[in-house]
Write a structure and sequence with these properties.
Elements (H helix, E strand, L loop, with lengths): L6 E4 L4 E4 L9 E2 L2 E3 L7 E6 L2 E3 H6 L5 E7 L2 E2 L7 E7 L2 E6 L1 E3 L3 E5 L15 E10 L2 E11 L7 H5 L5 E4 L4 E4 L23 E3 L6 E5 L2 E3 L2 E5 L10 E6 L2 E10 L2 E4 L2 E3 L7 E10 L4 E2 L7 E5 L1 H4 L3 H5 L7 E5 L10 E5 L4
Parallel strand pairs: 6-14, 18-27
Antiparallel strand pairs: 1-2, 1-4, 3-8, 5-7, 7-12, 9-10, 9-13, 11-12, 13-14, 15-16, 17-20, 19-24, 20-23, 21-22, 21-25, 22-23, 25-26, 25-27, 28-29
Subcellular location: Membrane
GO biological process, one term: regulation of cell migration
InterPro entries: Ig-like_fold, Plexin, Plexin_repeat, PSI, TIG2_plexin
Length: 342
Amino acid sequence: DGQDPLCGWCIQEQACTTSHKCREPSAFKPAWLAATGKSCVNVTNMAPSSISYQSLVDEPAATKLTFSLESVQVVPLNGLDLSCEYRSGMQRHSAPASVQSDRHVECPLPPAEKLSPPRKGNDFEPLAVHFAVKGRSIVTRSVSIYNCNSHSSCMNCTNSQFGCAWCYTSGTCEEKGAPCKHLSGSDVALIETEDKCPQVWTKSTNPGIVVHSGLSSQIAVRVKNLQPEQTQAVKCKFVNAGKEKVVTADITATTLTCAEAEFEFEGENPYVLVGFTVTWGGLDLPLDNLMAIQVRVYKCRYMVAYCGQCLSLDSDYNCGWCQGPCDTPVPCPGTCSLSKQC
């Protein structure tokens, strides 16, 4: 198989050597693994395989990391200086390791301030764990440090692989079993599956709601899974080029209707997309907008240049070709415009 039968891995030196050169008092038995054996030091049975970032904040000393070493045993020698070396982003932390029954290792987990917290929208960060002797890494594995709070929508929260759940009264993603309460202090059940998430939606296959620039419109969408208090103090928020417009909204059965708002933009662009968010309650907590519903504010005259193109536009735009009067033999240019503006 091409392997030199005299070569092998000197575990403590972390080098490929012959057996007689692997002489230093070793923390491991065997100290040298023959290449022909095709087995390396490995980590198995790591527990927990994922760790809550919040638990490290709340109870930093409560959880230990345990794992087993495969293919070797640890020899009980003095001065071994066994440790777990943790690496998270640019952060480094060392913790003493203890060994039970020759191959089972236990290490304290690092405190939260020694970890890179999961970024917003990304609910976990890998934590590299190096089992080391005298500061030299012998074998490494990774565990996931997760943070349910990194999610800002019910759908992303309930789809997390770490069993997160949504507290709609605070608009936060929590670990299952965490408290979720009404403003009155009474308990509220966490939402654990995405099909129960309060949200706005539309039957249209195109989630863009069209409004001609310069016109006022009452934007209407569907809603589902709303809790009773989520029908109170409802608002529609429209954002365009950093400018925000907020209007009140009413909910009737499964329909939400925003109060009339004017939509307009400057320039010769054919359209702009206006961000759309529905909030509820005194905290202005947003409802999920899974379909990414937006308002498309458009101008017929800049959408197309020719009559045929204009008449081929989707009927939702309500555009038509407007041919101006001709008082001279010179050909008269027409424009694509709203029928009522011609």
